[in-house]
Amino acid sequence: MNIDIDDLVTRYVAVWNEPDPSTRRTMIASLWSADATEYTEESEYHGHAEMESRVTEAHTDLVQKGGFLFHPEFDTKTHHDAIVFTTKMTPASGGDPAWRGRIFLVLGDDGRIRDDYQFAL
């Protein structure tokens, strides 16, 4: 696959921090395919509408109200159409991570995310 993997990871993490709903919606459409699925340990989210609800809820609870920001760790590994990397959530004012997660993405032929698996570390 001929895409800039670091750019994809940066955009993936940035969408969770994005405060503007319109920009966030555009980012979601550019990152995930229309029929993508995200899997967390508790739930599944299908398609852009559910991803938008998911990302918006996380942003409201964790970034806006919680005072956290998400950051990539740039430990990305790729294998054919799969990408794995670590992200962390830290207080916006700095400090140790309050959460870390391992993200496993499967990309479609268009370079957008088809399957998104999140694992809490």
Give a verbal description of the structure.
A hairpin with a 4-residue loop joins strand 1 (about 30-40) and strand 2. The mean pLDDT is about 95. This protein has helices at about 5-15, 20-30, 45-65, and strands at about 30-40, 45, 70, 75-80, 80-90, 100-105, 115-120. Helices cover about 35% and strands about 40% of the residues. Strands 1, 2, 3, 4, 5, 6 and 7 form a 7-stranded mixed sheet that branches. It is built from 3 helices and 7 strands. The longest helix has 19 residues, at about 45-65. By secondary structure, it is an alpha+beta fold.
**How would you sum up the global shape?**
globular
Rounded to an integer in angstroms, the radius of gyration calculated over CA atoms is 14 Å
How would you name the oligomeric state of the polypeptide chains in this document? single chain
Number of strands: 7
Strand content: 35-45%
Instruction: Provide the residue-averaged pLDDT.
Output: 97
End-to-end separation in angstroms reads 28 Å
Short synopsis of the structure:
The chain has 121 residues and is an alpha+beta fold. It is built from 3 helices and 7 strands, in the order ααββαβββββ. Strand 4 (77-79) and strand 5 form a beta hairpin.
